[in-house]
TrEMBL record:
Protein name: Adenine deaminase
Cofactor(s) listed in the protein's UniProt record: Zn(2+)
Organism superkingdom: Bacteria
Organism, as annotated: Amycolatopsis bartoniae
Pfam families: A_deaminase
Taxon lineage: Bacteria, Bacillati, Actinomycetota, Actinomycetes, Pseudonocardiales
Length: 323
């Protein structure tokens, strides 16, 4: 049986982690007070954890935390704190997603500038490397998504490696975002999207066929469609799965069963914390729990540590150094 100390020290990488889901309740309360933002009760009175009963309530807290991050300095502080915390659990690489559309008071460049400053300080102090994924929020629709990608291309940063798609899967079909994805692809950005987390597998097929994604975030619904499963086993497109969930209505056992089934089916899957402060703990906790439930050997643990690096959109030289 692998020890918790070994799994914590094991150098790990993750490609699916939302910056605004990395803000601990104490930090959120401090930022909200500073900027006069009202937080939902579940963000104020849960002590060290946020308190919510289902995905929609969790998303409501997430959006309130977003509204509480109003300056480049807020982005810098949140990025630095989250990366240094994760590095204590052995994290060596993270692809940080953030939602510019959820922070209307700031320009794109102010937000990226804050993230890069925090990331630089964390890399110097704790050795953790990071890149940025600009996430489109589904609820704002295709036109706003296209404008966001235009904004990204007008302010190029080598650390911004991809666009993503997240938020409420009920709020918009992938087809709405074809123009935004086409523009990003033409500019050389990589493409990922949340799909098959709560929605059905047809969302995932649309992400592959219409958006041409290079990676799928979550993707559990693939287990319900043999054709999609066979197709993505054959292509070995990476899935960024998330082991722990904190939605009482879904229960963590069901998620463990899904991720175990995806691994058994032969998908190219890595483990990710998603929203470590909101939905689940830091990545080393996922590794410790997965090792027990999947009866990992040392080789399995090393395989999953490398899977996160190989799923990354960083340049080959960076991936080579991390491997
Ligand atoms: N935004 C932050 N976390 C998310 C998740 N797990 N699914 C969809 N959108 C999100
Ligand atoms: Zn996510």
């Amino acid at each position: 049986r692998l020890s918790a100390d070994y799994l914590r020290a094991l150098p790990k990488a993750e490609v699916h982690c939302h910056l605004e889901g990395c803000v601990p309740p104490k930090t959120a309360v401090r930022l909200a007070e500073r900027h006069g933002v009202a937080l939902p009760a579940g963000a104020r009175d849960g002590g060290d954890r946020y308190r919510f009963l289902n995905f929609d309530e969790g998303l409501e807290i997430y959006l309130a935390v977003c509204r509480s991050m109003q300056t480049a300095g807020d982005f810098e502080a949140v990025t630095y704190e989250s990366l240094v915390t994760a590095a204590e659990g052995g994290l060596r690489y993270r692809e940080i997603a953030f939602n510019p559309q959820n922070h209307p008071g700031l320009t794109y460049d102010e937000m990226v500038g804050g993230i890069l400053a925090g990331a630089r300080a964390a890399q110097e102090e704790a050795g953790v490397v990071s890149r940025i994924v600009v996430a489109i929020n589904r609820q704002f629709g295709g036109e706003a998504a296209l404008n966001l990608v235009r904004d990204v291309l007008a302010h190029p940063h080598p650390e911004v490696v991809a666009i993503g798609l997240d938020g409420d899967e009920k709020a918009g079909r992938p087809a709405e975002f074809v123009a935004a994805y086409d523009l990003a692809r033409a500019a050389g950005l990589k493409l990922t999207a949340h799909a098959g987390e709560h929605g059905d597998f047809t969302e995932m097929v649309e992400c592959l066929d219409l958006l041409g994604v290079d990676r799928i975030d979550h993707g559990y619904a693939a287990l319900l469609d043999p054709a999609l499963l066979a197709r993505t086993v054959a292509s070995q497109i990476p899935y960024s799965a998330c082991w722990f969930i904190d939605y009482p209505e879904l229960e963590v056992e069901g998620r463990r069963r899904d991720v175990a089934a995806m691994a058994a089916a032969g998908l190219n899957m890595c483990l990710n914390s998603d929203d470590p402060a909101l939905i689940g703990p830091e990545l080393h906790e996922d590794f410790i729990d997965a090792a027990v439930h999947l009866e990992w050997t040392v080789e399995d643990a090393e395989k999953y540590a490398l899977a996160g690096i190989d799923a990354s959109f960083a340049d080959d030289a960076t991936v080579g150094r991390l491997r």
